[in-house]
Amino acid sequence: MEKFNKYRVKADQETAKKRAEVEERERKIKERREKEQEKREALEPKIKELTDEEAAEMMQQQKESSKVVAKAATKDVDATKKDEEEEDPQDAGKLKPNAGNGCDLPNYRWTQTLSDIEVRIPLPKAGLRSRDLTVDIQKNHLKVAVKNQLPAIIDDRLLHDVKMEESTWLLEDKQTVLITLEKVNKMEWWSRLVVSDPEINTKKINPEPSKLSDLDGETRGLVEKMMYDQRQKEMGLPTSEEQKKQDMMKKYTFN
After folding, report:
1. 157-190: string of b/e by CB count within 10 Å (b at 16+)?
2. Beta carbons of 159 and 195 less than 8 angstroms apart
3. What is the annotated signal peptide range for this record (predicted)?
4. Across the strands, what pairs with 194?
5. ∠ at Cα 215 (117, 231), nearest 5°?
6. DSSP for 99-124?
7. pTM exceeds 0.70 for this model
8. What confidence tier does 134 reach under pLDDT thresholds 50, 70, 90?
9. Domain 103-204 belongs to what topology?
């Protein structure tokens, strides 16, 4: 009984710890959804009745704006063509990242930060419940399927490893499966979710400055170094490591 009580206390502590971790992850997911909802509400257009004079003035402004936009669009097309001509041949055919630094695919959409990946999968029919789904998150494999329905929505090897114990999924509004995958390597951008996906050009990823402020000093320094090296490569200039080597060579040559 003494041994039983000893290990029971330990088991209760482990259970409480895991429950707290799950509650914390669910809280973060809920906060993320609330922020997204706030952004969507902020972008919703406001309805306002206009007088005939205001409507005529708005039409004139729109015509002038259209001319400016058309001119700017022409410049953007020319700049895009120039960028494509100067693009690294190794990046030819790669997709441009979506607004979340991931990719929009026919069956799902994924976005990423340096620390995690979020996958949104619209379900093929409404009214499904969690028990109707199979979601299996492994260290290097992801499977998502509707039970008794083939083929699976996703059933493939992940591009890189994830932390199984830190990764979660939930059914959102009985319409969308939301999966959060915690990266093992938090200093690397993924070019695809699973190995069979089309590849995105990670050189065109633009991390949000607000996200950098959330990182600790050491990690933020490493991320800023990565961004600096990426810009240097795009301009054909030496990276920070290459600059150090050049400085050392100059020093030894001078001596």
Report:
1. ebbbebeeeebbbbbeeeeebbbbbbbeeeeebb
2. yes
3. none
4. 158
5. 80
6. TTSSEE-SS-EEEE-SSEEEEEEE-S
7. no
8. very high
9. Immunoglobulin-like (2.60.40)
